[in-house]
Structure formats: C-alpha cells, structure tokens
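#structure-requests
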Amino acid sequence: RPFHVEPTNIVSENDDMQRVTDEASAMNKRIHYYSRLTSPADRALIAPDHVLPAPDEIFVYSPLGTAFKVDSCTDGYGKNSSLVTIFMIWNTMMGTSILSIPWGIKQAGFTSGIILILLMGILTLYCCYRVVKSRQMIPLTDTSNWEFPDVCKYYFGSFGQWSSLLFSMVSLVGAMVVYWVLMSNFLFNTGKFIYNFVHDINVTDIVPGTNGSNKVICPSAASDHPPQNRSVMFSSGNRTGFELFEEWWDKSRTVPFYLIAVLLPLLNLKSPSFFAKFNVLGTVSVVYLVFLVTVKAAHLGIHLEFSWFTENEFFVPEFRILFPQLTGVLTLAFFIHNCVITLLQNNKNQDNNVRDLSIAYFLVGLTYLYVGVIIFASFPSPPLSKECIEQNFLDNFPSDDIMSFVARIFLLFQMMTVYPLLGYLARVQLLRQFFGNAYPSLFHVLILNLAIVGAGVAMARFYPNIGGIIRYSGATCGLAFVFVYPSLIYMISLHRAGQLTWPALIIHIFIILLGLANLIAQFLL
C-alpha cells in the first residue's frame, strides 16, 4: 500500500510504517486461516483477492468462508468495528433452530420456556467467554492463529484433537440432516402451492384449522406422526391428474429423493465458493420471519391462559417435565463456541470482545424470545390446542398461505446454497484428517457425500422431526464444546497457575454435570 513520506516529518513516517506493519500482520493471519481450511490444490477457502484490504472497502468473514462487503465500518486496515463484529456473531448463530423455538416453549411450558431461554443464553455466553479466554491462558509465544480445537489438542493431546473432530462432525452432519428435512418440507409445500395455483384447484387438508383469511392448521391433531399428503378437492380440476400428482409429490416418500438429483452433484464440486455469494439470504430470511411473525400475531391476537401445573383442552401448563427438549434445542441455538475465536480475532478493539460478544448473545436471545413467545401467544387457542404447535412453526400455516409461501421460497433457496458449503466443511475436516487432502479422489468424496445425503434422506423419510434432530445433535456437540471442554480447560489452567479455588472447582464441575444431564435427558423424554 503506497504512502507519501514527508522527509521532515519523522513522526508521520513512523506512523505510516506502523500502519503498514499492522496491515501486513492482519493480512497474514487471514491468509493463514484460509490455508488451514483447505488443501493447496483446492482454492475454495484459499485467501481470495479481496482478502487484501483496499482503502475503500473491507470484507467480513463467517466460519463458512463467506464474505460480506462492509463500507465505512472498519479502520481500513483489516480490522472490524464492534458493530460489524456483533452482526457477524448474530448472523452466524441465527439458524434453523429459530423454527423450533415455539415448539420448544410449548414442550417446556410458557413461563418455564421464557426462563430457560434466558438461563441457557447466560450459561452458553459464560462458556463462550471461557472459550475466548482459553487461548490467552496458554503460555506460548504465538497462539494468534489457533482455534478452539487447537486449544483442545494442546490440553488433551490426540484425544482432544480427535474428539473435537468427532463433535464438530456431529454438529455439521446434524445441521445437514436438518437442512435436508426442511428442504424436503419447503419443496413439497412450494410445489403443492404452484400446482394448485396453475390448475385452479382449491384444496383443503384433512386437518383441523381455523377459518378466515389467516388460517392456522393443526397437522398433528389426528396422530403423533407427521402429517401425510392427504387432502380433499372441493372445486374444479382433473381428479385423476390431481391424485397422480399427490402420489408422486409426497412429503416423505418422494420429495426427499428428488433433492438428490440437484444437491449430490453440487456436493462433489471441488470449490463451493460460488454459493458463498448468497450468504446474505440467511439474514434476509431471518428478518422476513420476524416480519411474518409480527403480521400474523397482529391478525390473530393474543391467546393465553395461565395454568401452572394442570393441562386443559386448549392450553399447556406453565411448567412441564418435557423442558429438557427445549434446552437441547437451545444448546444448538446458542452454539458458536467452535468458531468464536475466529470471529473475534479481527475485532478492532480486542478489549471490547467480551462486551461485543455479550451484546450479540443478547440480540440472539431477544430474537429467539420474540419469535417463540409471539408464535406461542398468538396461536389461536381455542379453537385449536397449544399442543398443535409444530416443530417447524411454518407447518402450522397451510401451503396456500401467501406469506408462508414466500418464507418457504426464501428458506429453500438459502438452504440449497448453504448445503454445499456445509458439505465442503465436513469434507475438509474429515478427509484431511485421514488422507491429508480435502479431495483425495472423486471416489472418496462421493462415498462421503452419499453417506451424508443418505442420512438426510433417511431422516426425511422416517423421522422428519427437526425439533428432535436439533435437540439430539445440539446436546451431543454442546456437551463437548459448550460444557465440558471450556470448563476443564479453565480448571486445568487455574490448577497449573496455582489459582484453582474450591468455589471455581464446584461451579465448573456443576456446569459439566448440567451438560451431561442435558444429553441424557434427550433420550429419556
């Protein structure tokens, strides 16, 4: 980066030289981070041209290697402002879990659901803070390029390395399975809406629901199983053609297999960098969901009745024994611990890391609370019971609902662009560990992708319950990255420094036990 030097101004020259040095240091850290995620032959996450900061623009990176162009938010030398850092963390944490928060509140009870969201947010924030501090407590000269799995390897050796890989794969593959189930759901409802619209068919599902323009349905009213593709035709249309469409366009029996033709070839690409350009759709989708929830609540009104321990026909108790199902979902909803160091290392003022992380967690918790509470409170009870709230709250709106149709289109396209990126990260983490290369051959990559896709298809076919999948994978990977490793590393560091006290020991053992109880409870309730 050229700069003008005034021969008579030594102070200005020194300042400029320091800026160039700082810029080069930040650039090298980014290049090193990209190079650790991929092999030299695969340039999907190799430092692109825009990593070199220009005077007028800067790019902010998410853990998926995607980039946001940010104007006037940095110092021009590769450092992010606090506002950008907070947005990065919020955008990274906001995911598919938001669709299951209303169901989780229903499982826990309204009052206990709100309390649990607040408590889990505080607990996971504290553990995330311990993750950020864990690297700083290592007595080595340079750990600036380390991520949390590197810290685990330092403290626990090969066990820490391989266990962190295992739990990281659980979170990645779990996310990909949830994506496949949701994409099958969204594709099914989108196709159904388009077919009915094109053929001028008016269809009503055989499920209870409200009347009027803002219809809400209860797909699981007749059974504990997911709703099947059953309907009754009321008006014009070819009955034979309609029945044939329903036979070949089924949510669980056919649509999950159709996705293979589109997504399996994309997973086998060496470089998924093209899809990174659509990352902004994630933010748009969340904003639109908040808008949808607000509009629906305004039309439906508030339907609450407080019954503290007993159930009635339309409402659930404020406290329920099923509350661990919500804590399992929340563990994944607040999960960012395996990549938070990367997100914070380019913060302009490192002294603000704790503050910025706390603000980001507050905003994430506020978003979850808003969506969960509004959907639960506005769900029309009576005539429907609160038990009708689905694991994906969009399923409570019929396929011909315009606002829900738009939301499904947004989410379907966004997930189809993120899915290859998740598959690439899974490939990089797993194949590089075993073969030293992220793309050893097409055969190796195809076998891995067939296993991942097969898991998604099987779940969409036989267990299309995203709330269940999220809580199992969240509690499993959260046990390691949220509860156990941060607490153990902190206690070991204090012990080595001779500063471990009984209160600190008891508190962090209790945190570990909470994580273990959270995992065990998922299989008991």
